[in-house]
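Board notes, transcribed. Complex of a protein with adenosine-5'-diphosphate.
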Amino acid sequence: MIQLKQLTKKYGKGDKITDALTSLDLSIKKGEIFGVIGHSGAGKSTLIRCMNLLERPTSGEVWVNDVELTALNKQQLQHERRNIGMIFQHFNLLSSATVYDNIAFPLQLAHANKEHIHARVSELLALVDLEAHRDKYPSQLSGGQKQRVGIARALASDPQVLLCDEATSALDPQTTDSILKLLLDINKRFNLTIVLITHEMHVIQSICDRVAVIHQGGIIEQGPVTEVFLKPQHAVTRDFIRGEANVGDWIHTVGGNGTNGAFSQTVKITFLGEQTYDAILSRTAREIGVDFAILQGTISTIKDTPYGQLFVRIEGEADKINATIAEIASKGLDVEVID
Ligand code: ADP
C-alpha cells in the first residue's frame, strides 16, 4: 500500500545541513494500522509528511497505491492526494468556518455538487458523532470534538490512507482513548490503512498492528507490536516501554536472595494470548516441587491480544529449578533467565 524506498531528507544548505531522514525503507500493508514511534527530533513528522509530499524528500521514492508520488506533476499529485487523508496534532481547522463547512471544504475544492456534499457531510457527521454540533465554530468545541472534525474532513474524499501526525498528543488521556477507538472503528469498517506517528507507547499498544521505531532519521526496529513491545531489541525501544528501563537493576537487588539458603533463579516469563490466563506457573511449581515469588508483573492487552510479563524468583534445588524453566518453556512460554 505504501512503500518508501531509500528516502532521504536534508534540511538547510552548506554547513548547516540537518539529515532528517537517511536512506529509509518502509513498507506498510493495506488495511493495517501502522505506528511509527520515536523521540522528539527523530524524524517522525518529516517521515509522515513525505508520505503525501507535504514535505518533498531530497531523494528516494514514495509509492502509495502503486503510484510513485515524486514522479507526478502538480495536477496529478493533487489528484492522488485525495486518496490520502491527514489529521494533525493541532487539528488545523478553519476557525471562521462551521463544523459543517470545515468537513465540506475538501469536497468543494474538488468541485463536488451540492447534493453530494450535503449527503456526504451528513454521513460523516454521524460517523464522528457530531450531528448536534454541525453549526458550531471550532472555538466552541473541545479538543476531542475538534479532532473528530479533523477526522471527518480527512475522510470526506473517501481516501484509502489516513495519516495521523501526533493526532492525540494535544488531548487528555480519556479523550485520547475515544479518538483511538474511533480510528480503530474506521479502520475496521472501511479497511482504511492508517499510519500514525507518536511518541507515546500507549497509542501504539492500543490500536497498532505493527510498529517501527525511528531514531536519528532511520528505522532501528520494526515488527508486530506484540513482538517489538515484549522483546524490544534496542535501548531506544526499551525506553518507550514504561518502567522497563529500570527493572533490570532493581531485580538484581532482590533477585539473588532465596529464602532458607535454597538456590534461586530469577526469570522473566512472557505469556501471550490465551495462555495469559492459564495456571501454568503454579501447576508446574507444584508438580516439580519448587516455590516461586512474583517480583514484578504486568497483565494487559496489546490491541486485542492479552499478554502477561512476570519477573519471578524460583526457589528450590538447582536441578528442580532447571526442570521448572524447561517445563515452562516447553509449554510455549517465553522464559528469559536474568543473571
Ligand atoms: P520529530 O517529528 O520526530 O520530532 P522532525 O521530523 O520534526 O522530528 O525533525 C527531524 C529533524 O529535522 C530535527 O533535527 C529537526 O530539527 C529537523 N527539522 C525539521 N523540520 C525542519 C525544517 N523545516 N528546517 C530545518 N530543520 C528541520
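The first strand starts at residue 2 and ends at 11. The chain has twelve helices and 14 strands.
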